[in-house]
Amino acid sequence: MALQIWDDFPTIQTKLTALTPYLIEAARIKQPAVNERVQSLLRHGGKLIRAGLFYLFSEFGPDQNEERLQAGAAAIELLHLATLIHDDVIDQAPERRGTQTVHTRVGNRNAIYAGDLLFTLYFDQVLKSAETFNDIAVNTHAMHGILDGELDQYDLNYHLKETVDQYLKEIEGKTAKLFALACAQGAKLAHADMIIVESAEQIGRSIGLAFQILDDVLDYTGEQQDIRKPILQDIQQGIYTLPLLFALEAQPEKLRPYLKRGIQLTETDLQTIQALVTKSDGVAQARTMANELTDQALLDIKMLPETPARQALETLTRRLLQREQ
Amino acid sequence: MALQIWDDFPTIQTKLTALTPYLIEAARIKQPAVNERVQSLLRHGGKLIRAGLFYLFSEFGPDQNEERLQAGAAAIELLHLATLIHDDVIDQAPERRGTQTVHTRVGNRNAIYAGDLLFTLYFDQVLKSAETFNDIAVNTHAMHGILDGELDQYDLNYHLKETVDQYLKEIEGKTAKLFALACAQGAKLAHADMIIVESAEQIGRSIGLAFQILDDVLDYTGEQQDIRKPILQDIQQGIYTLPLLFALEAQPEKLRPYLKRGIQLTETDLQTIQALVTKSDGVAQARTMANELTDQALLDIKMLPETPARQALETLTRRLLQREQ
């Protein structure tokens, strides 16, 4: 796995390195063809950002029960993996992390069931990590929020009036909830003070929101090979992200005629849209919002007890959200 | 809902009638369009066989905690509903229970996420009904088995050598596991003796297997309007059920040439296959196997303590599996 981002955080990197074989075992599926794809997805990557954040926050608690924490970290990554497999079926994405997606090799049917099965494996790890029913309920609650975010997108599609607030609400569910869960569970399972657990949830949320916004910005600014998801398809389907929404506020008359083409949108139209969004300051405004969220996270991090973990968390947040100083 | 099958079991019918509004509330989804379809599926039907079996077995225990049992019964039906929604996406079925399927109205994307969300709502009810971590683990274990059964089908597709044993293993996961879970959880959550819980699981398994076999028989014998799932598509995809497997054993040379056409199979080919299966005794042999499983269930039921619940269970089993005396 691509764990270089953790090079400067040796305690976390050690834990993530140990997590990898555990995760591969926890995600094992009986059927060889399906298993081969899921294992390949695990092996090909992932910086394990969510598990890393989980471990960073676990360092704020006194109880370092290795087994329980490992199950907690694995749970987060399995939930993430389950949602990715279903997302890829939905987007009919051919590749993820540079390897063929599950459905491409074993069909939509088995990819849907494989995602379902991973939700089960996720719950197995939740059960291993939890000490109380409430620990489990926090997980179903987060999973509910994640799926709510995905379903909210449906109401928004093709709404040219989609506002920035609605976008934020949607990425809150789609991305931020899982980051918040990772951070809060790390603190909670290590028995950190309740006030730290709550703060961890807030910090995870801010980092998740900024992370998603920057990811959406990349769709407009990245080199072709950096673009991980075909945005043409998204825009055709009426899914508009923050840079486009800001550009739409600034230059509605220029952008609307293109967006209204919906499913008829061509690759050339898309290039025009990309150029308009970049020129109209949509990208810059989205970046500003990501920076504000990053600042908020850094502010909340500063309020945590002064420990090496806090320093590490601050450095990682800056790097992850491209605010290197 | 179509609760007439419970007319002669008034205590169960009363509980199922009370379960209906609870279930509708437990399955509520925030997004109106998605919610409308899920609620319609719930309102249009289902005999609530699994919840009914759950309640029948709960009568073998001393602890009739209404709230806990209701959550347990709802959990079973929500798990069933979640799998149905994903099944319908996979089969691209236009209707279920005489109403439009979820994906037909809100698209595959939202139907997949809606199924995922129902798995979450299922777990919420599991948490409400469970008293110990083990009660929860029994559920994840059953869910694992169900999905394993679905994925096992993949390995079997297009295998002309699929054996009866493999078919049984597959419907064990696909159908019998949920029946077994329903029966065992009913007994368990009412604090019945462990030996009754284990027996409940066995009985549920036998009933589930017989139920699925009879369902598969109907594909070959039912009037057109009774056929709930297009079997042409199944056979094209290499999914062979018991009547066809028995017929294939008896007359391989006649059936193989048709089956080998796979995706090229026409409606006319299918009629020929249906005629061959019916004539070749495949249907009769499948019915015999269902009857043997029913007898096994009835035998195990006879070993339960002699109570009105036992009598009701026996009568219901005979009716459900068309063994009216």
TrEMBL record, chains A, B:
<dbReference type="InterPro" id="IPR008949">
    <property type="entry name" value="Isoprenoid_synthase_dom_sf"/>
</dbReference>
<dbReference type="GO" id="GO:0004659">
    <property type="term" value="F:prenyltransferase activity"/>
</dbReference>
<dbReference type="GO" id="GO:0046872">
    <property type="term" value="F:metal ion binding"/>
</dbReference>
<dbReference type="InterPro" id="IPR000092">
    <property type="entry name" value="Polyprenyl_synt"/>
</dbReference>
<keyword id="KW-0808">Transferase</keyword>
<keyword id="KW-0479">Metal-binding</keyword>
<dbReference type="Pfam" id="PF00348">
    <property type="entry name" value="polyprenyl_synt"/>
</dbReference>
<keyword id="KW-0460">Magnesium</keyword>
<protein>
    <submittedName>
        <fullName>Trans-hexaprenyltranstransferase</fullName>
    </submittedName>
</protein>
<dbReference type="GO" id="GO:0008299">
    <property type="term" value="P:isoprenoid biosynthetic process"/>
</dbReference>
<dbReference type="InterPro" id="IPR033749">
    <property type="entry name" value="Polyprenyl_synt_CS"/>
</dbReference>
<comment type="similarity">
    <text>Belongs to the FPP/GGPP synthase family.</text>
</comment>
